[in-house]
Write a structure and sequence with these properties.
Low-confidence stretches: 141-148, 273-287, 385-432
Number of strands: 0
Main location: nucleus
Largest sheet: none
Strand content: under 5%
Oligomer: single chain
Family: Belongs to the CND3 (condensin subunit 3) family.
Radius of gyration: 36 Å
Subcellular location: Chromosome
Structural class: mainly alpha
Shape: elongated
GO cellular component, one term: condensin complex
Distance between the termini: 159 Å
Pfam families: Cnd3
Amino acid sequence: MALNAIEGVKLSEEEHEDEANIANEESLKQTEAKLRALEVVEALLSHKGELSDRQQIQMAVLNGFTSSNSVLRASALQCLSVLCLREKEDDEALRFLPLFVQVCGNDTAELRLMAMKCMVDFLMAFRMEDRSSEGENPEENGNDSTTPSGKALILSLLLDNLLHSDSEMRTVAAEGLARLLFCARIEAEPEILSKLLLLFFNPATEDDDLHRQSMSVFFPAFAARSQTNRSLFEEALILTLNAISSAPSVSPIASVDPVEMSLYTFYLLELNDQPLKRTVDSETSSDSQSERMILRLLNKVIDLCETIGDSDALHMYCRVLGNIKLKQTVGTLSELESFMSLTSKAVGYVGSMGDSKSITFIRKFAMQLRIQHRDNQSARVLFGDDEEDGESEDDSYSGKENAEVVPRSTRARSTTALVDHNENVTFHTGTHEHKKSMLNEVGEGVERASARGRVLRSGSRKS
């Protein structure tokens, strides 16, 4: 009896194994059949023209999402995205958007990346805006509650994935935001640029070559496109510095170098597709946004000192100012003097705080301004005198017979003094050629006046 019972148990186990094998074979056959069906659907979607039976195609695609096979789900996701992109309106994309969001958060790494790329493509192709603002009822369109905020939902998802632990997810999210910003598919905001800057200068992304290459192309191209974009980088710099100063020591944001990031942002602010040449008396130039940014940093230093704010934040802002290189003359002479006045105030406040390192940095910046002020004053004195001399020479030899003739020795000394003064003047970048040409014009005017005087004297002798 016991032997028969054991044999019966063995037979039942074998039967269960056979049934399991049969079930697996049937499941495998079903998976293969669904995969072949999706391949046919993908081939149909690759051709232009109207689809003959759209509902049947949708059913075949949606059945693929119920499979446990990741390859089948990936094929279904690809077909569904193409099916949505073939539409002229964003109705289908909004309808299936929750499915893409679910895949992006709860599937394999490959499918999450694919779903995120598909959603970026949706925003590139469609507006994906709130339908309720257009007077439409979402329930009448068959859309759920998440449909009206499709654009905001995708944008929020991309921003969240900038902090993802997976480097590929971060890269795809950053590239997607860069594409959308550059093509004006989403509204450019300083907060988005600040997050991209923090990720770009995060030491954890140094080895991510694809991310760094794409951002190295995006930032200059976006900044050079318009002055409005460069103004956004002004706000983004302040937001980024505040984020670095307030970040906990264990946060990855705390490891971002504020000086390196700030210098790069100043480089972006100076980009211009039509650069303007600056003269000594010009009040507008291509680096006016950089000047505004420096003023904001100085005011931030003063505010931190007046409110006895965070000493680490004060040190960071002073360090940034101390490492800024002033490449050109700052505005007009009056603007430069206002810069020096504000800087002197900041130096006094920082000195009262007793932080020796911060004092060193802010004094380093003040020294640059003093050097520019000295050179700017010498250049203005030179050109002011030259213009007066040139006018007097032209007036003296206006062609009148009774005009006074300046003695030749005086004219020679005047010309020599101009040349000597020119040799002793140190010119700034971008203004040397302009100043030199002005000096040459004055010298030529003196020589013409001398020749005219000789003609007048010879004529008087003949008479």
